[in-house]
């Protein structure tokens, strides 16, 4: 393995879980910083209902202001036909549909049963593809649900197969509340990989219990080559109690580069983005690598920025 693709979800998964609502121009500056750091895949926002996630209510405005750069692709969550109409009027490059492997979280998150959700997503995928857009799928609560606990892997397999049949090109497996451990990731992937090829799967690990990085490592060992991360370790689903940050992109980049695996992302430049975000949201971010880089800068007199 020589290279891993990191999908940077901080602008979406990170900011959706913050009480501070950042202005559009700050989000645009974050995107500029991410591009300077070499990030190519940026999940920038969501076309969900603005009342459900007010932090991302500026989705269309932000999409219109994002810096365009060769090779950089912007993504956004699209929950339904209304969200698709909003997204299609913007220059966002590709979309992601999402649902949960557990009934209760699906209902709390998108106000529908799982069975009611399939036709909604199928319509989004079909119309998006007709408009020339690729669509990714997310399955949430793959490794456990905040309301129901364990989720049968057979349910995850069925859901992934349905999403592939709809036409999604990749499925990101969400450990929404960060309950997974390496044994669970391995057991789940062993079953899933009998049905879905590794190149169509991605890992989306939240770090609620400090296991995200080790889970990412196990998925790499099992053949996964795309991992989601959020700058500084921001993140969490507002409709999943107890969910906290994603694996920090800084921690992923540091770890992968030390293992001799390229990410194309420059760690120090990325840390500068997170330093700005810390100032904007008024608290230190959780990434250990970020905090150690900041400490090193201070000790060599480079300051925080
Ligand atoms: P609903 O209230 O059931 O929607 O919400 P509805 O279809 O009944 O429509 C009600 C009204 O909302 C209508 O307006 C619609 O037009 C409007 P009215 O006719 O009453 O004036 N409406 C919309 N307006 C703007 N944009 C839309 C939209 N849809 C309907 N897209 C809905 C259903 C899905 C919209 C809502 O439940 C919602 O927005 N949920 C999103 C929750 C969310 O964003 N959660 C976090 C993202 S998922 C996540 O974080 C997990 C992930 O990271 C992976 C992991 O970690 O596991 C991806
Ligand atoms: Mg998430």
Give every kind of bound small molecule, once each. Answer: 3-hydroxy-3-methylglutaryl-coenzyme A, magnesium ion
| Helix/strand class | alpha/beta
- Biggest sheet character: 8 strands, parallel
Q: How far is it from the N-terminal to the C-terminal residue, by CA?
A: 34 Å
The number of distinct helices, counting runs of at least 4 residues, comes to 12
CATH topology: TIM Barrel
Strand content: 5-15%
Overall number of structural domains: 1
Q: What Rg do the Cα atoms give?
A: 18 Å
Q: Mind telling me the CATH superfamily name? A: Aldolase class I
Architecture, according to CATH?
Alpha-Beta Barrel
Biggest β-sheet: strands ordered side by side in the sheet: 7-6-5-4-3-2-1-8
- Percent helix among the residues? 40-55%
Order of helices and strands: EHHEHEHEHHEHEHEHEHHH
Mean pLDDT metric = 97
The number of E-state strands comes to: 8
Protein name: Hydroxymethylglutaryl-CoA lyase YngG
GO molecular function: acyltransferase activity, acyl groups converted into alkyl on transfer; hydroxymethylglutaryl-CoA lyase activity; metal ion binding
Pfam families: HMGL-like
Keywords: Lyase, Metal-binding, Transferase
């Amino acid at each position: 393995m020589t290279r891993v693709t990191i999908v940077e979800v901080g602008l979406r998964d990170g900011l959706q879980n913050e009480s501070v609502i950042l202005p559009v121009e700050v989000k645009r500056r974050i995107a500029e910083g991410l591009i300077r750091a070499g990030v190519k895949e940026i999940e920038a926002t969501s076309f969900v209902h603005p009342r459900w996630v007010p932090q991302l209510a500026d989705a269309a405005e932000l999409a219109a202001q994002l810096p365009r750069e060769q090779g950089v692709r912007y993504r956004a969550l699209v929950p339904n036909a209304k969200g698709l109409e909003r997204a299609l009027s913007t220059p966002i490059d590709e979309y992601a549909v999402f649902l949960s492997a557990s009934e209760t979280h699906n209902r709390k998150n998108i106000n529908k049963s799982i069975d009611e959700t399939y036709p909604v997503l199928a319509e989004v995928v079909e119309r998006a593809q007709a408009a020339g857009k690729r669509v990714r799928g997310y399955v949430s609560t793959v490794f456990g649900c905040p309301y129901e606990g364990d989720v049968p892997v057979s349910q995850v397999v069925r859901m992934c197969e349905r999403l592939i049949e709809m036409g999604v090109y990749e499925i990101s497996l969400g450990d929404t509340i960060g309950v997974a451990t390496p044994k669970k990731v391995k057991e789940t992937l062993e079953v899933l990989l009998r049905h879905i090829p590794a190149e169509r799967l991605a890992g989306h690990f939240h770090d609620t219990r400090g296991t995200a990085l080790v889970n990412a490592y196990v998925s790499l060992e099992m053949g996964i080559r795309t991992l989601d991360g959020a700058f500084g370790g921001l993140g969490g689903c507002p409709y999943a109690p107890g969910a906290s940050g994603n694996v920090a992109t800084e921690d992923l980049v540091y770890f992968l580069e030390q293992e001799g695996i390229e990410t194309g992302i420059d760690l120090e430049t990325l840390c500068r983005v997170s330093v700005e975000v810390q100032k904007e949201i008024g608290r230190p971010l959780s990434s250990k690598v970020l905090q150690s880089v900041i400490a090193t800068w201070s000790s060599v007199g480079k300051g925080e920025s």
